[in-house]
Amino acid sequence: MPPPRWLRHRLAGKAAYTSVDRFGHLGDTVADPMRLTIAVLTSALLATVPAQAGFKVCNKAHMPAKVAFGHFDGKAWLSEGWWTILPQKCETLLSGPLDARYYYLYGTDGGSGTWDGGTGFCTAAVGPFAIAGRGRCAARGLDRKGFFEVDTSDHTNWIQSLSD
Predict the structure, then answer these.
(1) Lower Cβ count inside 10 Å, N or C end of the chain?
(2) Hey, which bits of the chain come out as E strands?
(3) Contact 110, 139 (CB under 8 A)
(4) Residue 127: predicted pLDDT
(5) Rounded to whole angstroms, how far apart are CA atoms 29 and 14?
(6) How far apart are CA 7 and CA 11, in angstroms?
(7) Tens digit of pLDDT for each residue in 30-89?
(8) pLDDT score at 111
């Protein structure tokens, strides 16, 4: 049985039928077309890598967004920032599988737009910063911003969009 027409068209000529042995060496013999089809399809499936787990923020607004991120790392509350996310772009704020249900964000476009909420975290006027603890911000020479809560429902991967 010959390979599918689309495969013959894309992989025209003898190269489409070249065999590879179990050690990865190319052979001069013509491989069974069905085995070639299975190999190509298997390679295509293995090449599709699942999305990397983590917490990602996408800026759907028309202005760049400056974003700070708050979370509990298992020992202490942390706030981190600033990420500048250009319009229609995304940034990964936390890599790896998420291990908590709730995360917190604060964002501003530098003008009249903010994405904020009622959970206070310390931030620095300029970044980057990583601050342990949520209390006594002013006494430590830091600003205090109200972050909004993001409920990930215990998902290991989350994408949060910011929009106008």
Answers:
(1) N
(2) 18-20, 26-30, 54-59, 65-72, 77-85, 89-95, 102-108, 114-115, 119-123, 129-132, 143-151, 157-162
(3) no
(4) 78
(5) 9
(6) 6
(7) 445 555 455 444 444 444 444 567 999 999 999 999 999 999 988 999 999 999 999 999
(8) 83
